[in-house]
Amino acid sequence: MEFQRPKALREVVPPGSPEELMARARALVGVELGSVAVALGIDTTGTAVKTKGMPGGIVERALGATGGGAKVHDFPDLEIELKTIPVDAKGAPIESTYVCTLSLADAEEQEWETSWVRAKLSRVLFVPLIAKEGASWRARRFGEPVLWSPTPMQEDILRSDFDEVVGLIGIGRIEEVTAHIGRWLQVRPKAAHGRVRTIAWGAEGEAIATVPRGFYLRTRFTGAILTDPAAEPD
């Protein structure tokens, strides 16, 4: 499918409504990332390391996201977050989905209701990027988008996962927090490289230098909600 570039695509304005955002996302279904990058004037040459993270940036530009790396939603006026999900030919997510960083220094003070991870997950536009085996990421095609908000039951489970993690960190057991904890929401290392360290507190109140962490959604959860937004996978 050849991508037809609208006029002034390089200057995509933010969408004015969730309906407009969804219309933009649906218009890209079946289009290759590389074609969109060309239309946007984005240089995608370089090694895999150099272009890591570029697919998400291309999708942000194409849909008019303006949040960037700031602590705001990707679509601030709509309070909607954008998450791209690489999937295989059968629609199964290839990797867990990053949500946001986890503040370790003040974990004992954090509550689900006022947490940034809850705000991030309050309304999310999931955009699948369908990978072709053995092909460059530029050949990934846009899949059917899903605009999702957690059901009350889903939020209860996400809250439980959050509480378990921050509870352990709050009592100084940071090293017990692994990716195995959490039904849908897990914690994994999140740093530019292995030498990066941040501060957490030990059981005796001592400062501990440890790897930064972030919240991620498990593949079994994102895979399920791409099919059924109200799903409650085991």
TrEMBL record:
InterPro entries, alphabetized: DNA_rep_MutH/RE_typeII_Sau3AI (IPR011337), DNA_rep_MutH/T2_RE_sf (IPR037057), Restrct_endonuc-II-like (IPR011335)
Protein name: DNA mismatch repair endonuclease MutH
Domain (DNA mismatch repair MutH/Type II restriction enzyme Sau3AI): residue spans on this chain: 63-161
NCBIfam families linked: PRK05070.1
Keywords tagged on the record: Endonuclease, Hydrolase, Nuclease
Source organism superkingdom: Bacteria
SUPFAM superfamilies: Restriction endonuclease-like
A Pfam short name: MutH
One Gene Ontology molecular-function label: endonuclease activity
Coiled-coil regions listed: none
